[in-house]
Design a protein that fits this description.
Elements lengths: L3 E4 L3 E6 L10 H9 L2 E6 L15 H14 L5 E6 L1 H12 L4 E7 L11 H8 L9 H9 L5 H8 L2 E5 L2 E4 L3 H6 L18 E6 L10 H7 L3 E6 L6 H4 L1 H13 L1
Parallel strand pairs: 2-3, 2-4, 4-5, 5-8, 8-9
Antiparallel strand pairs: 1-3, 6-7
Helix pairs in contact: 2-3
Keywords: Hydrolase
GO molecular function, one term: hydrolase activity
Organism: Flavobacterium cupreum
Amino acid sequence: MLYSKIEGEGKPFIIMHGFLGMSDNWKTLAGQYVEAGFQVHILDLRNHGRSFHSDEWSYEAMVQDVFEYCQANQLTKTDILGHSMGGKVAMLFATTHPEIVDKLIVADIGPKFYKQHHQDILAGLNAVDFSVKPSRNDVEEIVAQHVPDFGTRQFLLKNLYWQEPGQLAFRFNLAVFNNNLEAIGVALPEGLVFDKPTLFIRGGNSGYVLDADFDAIRQHFPKVKFETIPNAGHWLHAENPKMFFELTTAFLKE
């Protein structure tokens, strides 16, 4: 079963992180959604955070995990939000289990195929040799050689934890990502449709969702609404959490 944090009372609201992320990334926003009257479920998807590791890693497998989570927690009518990879999971889940989902929010990702572009990040993560028992500072210095952006580096290093005294490790399943990285870019299958209220929200400085993608998105999500957060990149919820919260809450309360 997937690891989750459940807080609040009210309408169930599932939140799913992006690639190399985890539920902790959404902790602050989750608290705000709780105050807005939702029962928030922030998940760690398989091979991420505190959830189980598996050699099988695909969107179909992740959707099955979420379906089993909903069954175990008796979630029959939920709203769902996914960012990046989590947005792809959310899209496939909503189109294959529409009876469970009332409203769908997809943050800065589209249903199209994405060419692999995480090579530098993976190179930095793979350069860390935990057998020599590096310190946190050592790990950051190694990763920085491949990932110069401070914000991205801090996001990645949140995955560091003490496996035992003196021994750091990453929470995510790096070996599986190395072997099956193409899985993250696959498109939503043709013909799948979610005919309920949907919000696509993107960062104005991010190139993940283009105006040219809107028509293809409408084919899958005919009741879609588009919003853009200006001067924000791919991590729009972290760069402008206030506007992200306001736009998403307004949509959920409609």
